[in-house]
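fwd from M.: "can u put these together and see what the complex looks like"

so here's what she sent:
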Amino acid sequence: MWCNGCGDYGVLKGLTQALSDLEVAPDRLAVISGIGCSSRLPGYTRSYAFNSIHGRALPIASGLKYARPDLTVLVVGGDGDGFSIGLGHIPHAVRRDVPIMYAVLDNGIYGLTKGQASPTSEPDFKRDRGLAGPDERPLNPVLLVLASGAGFVARTHAGNLPHLRSMFREAIAYPGFSFVHVLAGCVTYQKPAYAEEIYQRCVMLPPDYDPKDFDRAMDAARGQLRARDLRIGARRASARCRWSRYEMAESSFPGE
Amino acid sequence: MTEMLGLASMAELPAVVVDCQRAGPATGMPSRTEQSDLDHAIFGGTATSRAPVLGVFDVVHAREAMHKAFHVAETWQLPVIVLSDAYIAQRRQIRDAVVSLAEPPRRQCGRPATAPRASSSGSSTASRRSACQAPRVAPHLAAGIEHTPEGFPTADTALHEQMNAKRFHKLDAVAQATADWYRVLGDTRAPLGIIAWGSQHGLLREWVRDHPAYTAFLPEILHPFPIAALRAWLAERQWACVLELSFQGQFHRYLGGMLDLAQVPSIKRSGGVPLGRLELERMLVEVKP
């Protein structure tokens, strides 16, 4: 049901590639979503799947994971679903450290309901389109999830398939709650050049970036408030994580 | 709760929700009792979703009611609401030892709660399975949005009509199976009657014991209502009234949609504290001809 050129196709491909890399069998996988364009993704996977209700994918997925810890449980949804009606569930899923991956496909708009402003819509866009709340600042999802204490936080772009695949692979394998912020464009309700513009603003995290350094992760996330660049990559792997984005290694954190 | 009930109704998931009613609106008098969620339980919800609603008489009955609720939910693959209230929830009662009840429920629904999805070869496993054999193998999809009988999301309006009919048909089956889920207190030949539900059971049990001219009718299932039984019971009474702890008289209005209650007055008041015998006596004096 996605439009031609929608970033969700790339996300689906990156996700299935990552699952293939990790050899997750279809009968060991459950994909849970809320409501929205991106929430239709479970319909295109051959697995257990639940296309549930708006904003409630996280509690449903948490319940499933508690009941069936043997399953790999993934949650996918959009920025409206996750950062508006469903926002209240994020910090609680983070603090419970439910071992699920939550991927938010952020196109900065409510696409399914035909182009209303979402919590991540940019002021210029809202002003141009005459949408509500042009003076309201967009949410910074990565900063929000980092501040909640998530152990794995990453950002990637729907148009960068190798990176997307890599981030999903690491997030799914992470043994706690992991969050992947996927920048995507809406080809129907955003301006045509939006996806490309976002892509151009993406900057890889530097090679010396240490994903276990929380302060640096916060600095990187805060950078979005000051600059126009959207740094992509895994921001943080917590002390409890025994490996990082770059290498399989035993943690050197005390008490581990 | 309401949106999750809608989801369970749409996705045909068995679930039991217990509502210990208190004096509202909202959290109005949080530790006090009332019977004011009846309208919400029966009619509340998104679009056309309805759940069976059971009423609890007391602590002892609560276990039986819960067993029945799970039985209905599992048998017909739908959400069920159990209405208790603070008066029951905050007290203790001695009961006989618990013994195992009836055999486990058997699904009688038109199709599994969640539908199997197209297999890797592309064919639907749903079409090859009988209606009540819910397969537990992946791939397997549950949809909270409208879906085909095979579980695939759809916006087809004709299918929406068919699926609504399918979901509501379950309530007809529940009504048939629960037609005798009610309790009559006192002498069945008594000329005077009181219709009530839930925790009024305790008060009425004492009342009919000390007033042989009275009998009482209390439904265990409030929706779908055992209306044929009530109609038959009412036909044998010279006079009857509806008793409840609700400012609006929700139960009386609900019954009024199914029966002619022109000669059956409502006696009611807001919650806060339970009704007592002296108060009931005064209320009956006021409404009796």
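replying to her w this: Chain A has a mean pLDDT of 85.
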